[in-house]
Amino acid sequence: MTSQTPGRNGAAKQPHLRVIPLGGLHEIGKNTCVFEYGDDIMLVDAGLAFPSDGMHGVNVVMPDTSYLKENQKRIRGMIVTHGHEDHIGGISHHLKNFNIPVIYGPRLAMSMLQGKMEEAGVTDRTTIQTVGPRDVVKVGQHFSVEFIRNTHSMADSFSLAITTPVGTIIFTGDFKFDHTPVDGEYFDMARLAHHGEQGVLCLFSDSTNAEVPGFCPPERSVFPALDRHIAQAEGRVIITTFASSIHRVAMILELAMKNGRKVGLLGRSMLNVIAKARELGYMRAPDDLFVPIKQIRDLPDRETLLLMTGSQGEPLAALSRISRGEHPQVQVKSSDTIIFSASPIPGNTISVVNTIDRLMMLGAKVVYGKGEGIHVSGHGFQEDQKLMLALTRPKFFVPVHGEHRMLVCHSKTAQSMGVPADNMLIIDNGDVVELTADSIKKGEPVKAGIELLDASRNGIVDARVLKERQQLADDGVITMLAVISTDGVMAAPPRVNLRGVVTAADPRKLSLWTEREITWVLENRWQQLSRNTGGKAPEVDWMGVQREIEVGLQRRLRRELQVEPLIICLVQPAPGGTPAYKGRADAEPDTRPAPRGRRDGNRDRDRDRTPRRELAPVGAAPSAATSSAPVPVAAAKAAPVAAAAKAEEHEISGRTRRRRSTAS
Known about the structure:
By secondary structure, this protein is α/β, with parallel strands linked by helices. The protein contains 19 helices and 27 strands.
């Protein structure tokens, strides 16, 4: 067989297996992995991540799937390990861009995915197939996948044994070894050991808690602490946790019944997940345990338990809105006991801490932190990872699902278990792992960035939009209206409005600076921004005029005031021959020089010191009063128009690039 790198038009069969993570490496979230052999592509999971504080108006973060769009004809199917959002949250969005012939996954995850697909209107783009423990499915010609039951913070979770032409791959998914699972579904270690005896080519293993020594505590270990806090609470109990942590939610409902409390649910995801889990039998609770949130306020506080979203400080989640006093049905009371039965995902710590602070300032008792015993992780610690290595005995090892330090720590654990350093790789999103029966190496990487979805999930937020939102948040916005005639005359004073801009400059000075920028553009750029049409009104590049004024004022504000607000200039055209606005009579000359070292410093000084004067209409002869001044652009004919346009285009481009680079 001959090797060929896959591209837009597909690939020939190749003697090596290619494994390409598009998300989940050097980060927490958006886990997406591609397995590729010959003409077959198989996806494993397709999750999302939550935005950082600087991603204004962004709801979710997705992996860049350009590589999959280019090779969509080769996609044979997808495997889902479990139903957490960082593993299935991106699927319905991706189905809008490319079809996936079939998706195999556990019953609970597929039920949740079906609802997402119906909401997105993409149910016709794929077929869903439910699987159970030890089921084996065929994907394409080259992949055979066995589902191995594991234990995690979510019910119905699996590891994968993927049989390929080069050998067997164990893909752990999210896991820990819980020997007392809440639902009685034990980790199928026998199947892991079986594959270990048969020979595992490579292990791709969860690294989230690679820095933590020991074994991860079992889920049941939080029961006594939760029971104690609920029993001792004098008023309402408010608990926030991950909606998808089915086992935790089931324990909380059990404790509510034990302590004689009715349950009110807040948060769309909490309502949906509990409904699905009860429908499928993963959670058992009588109907009369639940009370609509509008009616639960009529119950005594001592008989009330509220279960809600918001454990990660998400701005629109129920608990976050309550902490800000913005929830229509629930307000914090000083007698409330609020329990955070979750730990912050890396990147969410500040949001969580701010939520806790607000709740405490409202007088509530807030229970949080590792020392309280109210949360355990769903990801194995170092001893769990050692047990996985011992059972599977892989020839090669690749740590996945974690930030860089976690991957490094996991690789050291693997070395302590006898895996040679030369037999493992630490990879990043977009890296290509090439495996044969005897070797592992990195191939040519593929594109693997991020896609940002706005709050409606209807559009992609590109870098330009994100930069503008950042400018708005940092320095506010300035809008201006300029009236300019078609013969290049400023016909009225500019109107300037500030929103969110903190500046020492008074409005009069800002208006003066705006006039100077408009005047400079008309005198020095008009010839390139308008085209004579033989006696008729010239064709004017009004967008170019606006851009020139915006760039000039941006540079002046950066230099004079050290601020960079977003500037929006609107130009209202006026008929040719409109009388010129003469400018402010009390204006003082602006003599502040440009900073040293700028390539365009001389030009800036000229721009600042340009004497104000009325522009003559196009074609008018210069008067004696203006004969010693620079000739207006409308009358300038010294240089060939083409050469001047080319030079000025280059200058505009340079100014625009400088503006963008400093606004980053």
